[in-house]
Amino acid sequence: MENGVKVLIIEDEPHALMGLAELISGWGYRTQTARDGIEGWEKALAWEPAIVVTDLKMPRLDGMGLLARLAEGGTGLDGNLAVVVLTAMGSIEQAVDAMKLGAYDFLQKPVDSTRLRTILANATRQRETAIQLEVARRRLRESGVLGALVGSSRAMREIFALIEQIAPSSVPVLITGESGTGKELVARTLHDLSPRKSRPFVAVNCAAIPETLIESEIFGHEKGSFTGAAERRAGCFELASGGTLLLDEVGEMPIGTQAKLLRVLEERKLRRLGARTEQEVDVRVLAATNRDPNLAVAQGHLRADLFYRLNVFNIHMPPLREHMEDLPAMTDAMVNEMNQKHGRRVSGVAPSMLERMMEYNWPGNARELRNSIERAVILCPEGSPLDVGHLPPGFGKTQPPAEPNAGPGVVPVHVGATVDEAERLLILRTLEATGQNKTRAAEILGVSLKTLHNKLKMYGSARESPAA
Fold it and tell me: Is there a single domain that holds both residue 409 and residue 356?
């Protein structure tokens, strides 16, 4: 039966060329032929086939040269073009090299017709699947959705375009933005759109691991390498083998560990703690931080050489307050998600609640929005829309303007106070405002929970000091 798929056959031996054309045409494919690489290249540009079946040994331009040309971008050829290489006995090494250059498959001569038919059918199905996936992605982009990310504002469209451009590669990416803006969602989307999507995605929060354990967590350790190491343990790099590793809050990683991480990134080898030998690693590393990375480098929290190594591409996630036009779509997506998660049937969001949310500046960004929507979905009666009454108590209420150095929401700082004193007052006042909720205070202050704990520990030591 005619399937309409175009197959270009390139072979310099006339009888073999005629036989292949008759065979493949008989299976319902549309065929054209060429007798060397140059003629094949010209016909490929003019006819735009879906599949190319080519010999390796040919005059003027051999199969390897043709494959290299077909793989070049900007030729106008279908990006899903499949190239099947025909090779004589004893040329398997060349066929393997062709696979490395992007060939879909190879077949030894004399050609096994059953095997060739299976390869062509598989290539056709893969191409159709890739095209369908691209159409689906295009529709999602047009509706403001890419993976778990939602938004049709200019800022989000630019982020979507950059993600799609760099996802297929293995280059490091540094994802920046305030706490709660969706940096991990960006990382997961990069992974899901990459050739590594079938391999593990591992995320580790560098701020949440004690300094004494972070190297073991990331690089792994051998039995007996330190006190308490009762058995060998694989680190995050090994767990993410072939896949993607996200180092969240990389600016909180100890400087010594940063140096070891840089070496792994540059040499693609790691050594477990206590191990005598190194092992190869194949992992794409993504990093995220809520700090300004340039400031972190200047302050000595982030090594400059590691920053440059990670910052091959930078994706900056804007705070929610800077793209509020995306809030309605984000809210709808989160309501659907929470309905599925909790087995609920909430019917959208009432205009009054949406208006109230649009007036709020969301210091906790998308994470705070998600938490608010989850709470509201749980409280809302089945079949009803979310309403203002389902928001947290006191949500969105603004404080009246206060006199300087007085009143709620104002941190009194006297002239002559040091920066450390002002920082201490800001942290303690934020904790008071959140009812001593350290996680919420850290989100508002834009620091990691580990940093907040370290600051509070330092303040406690200062109070205990005789000089305090």
Answer: no
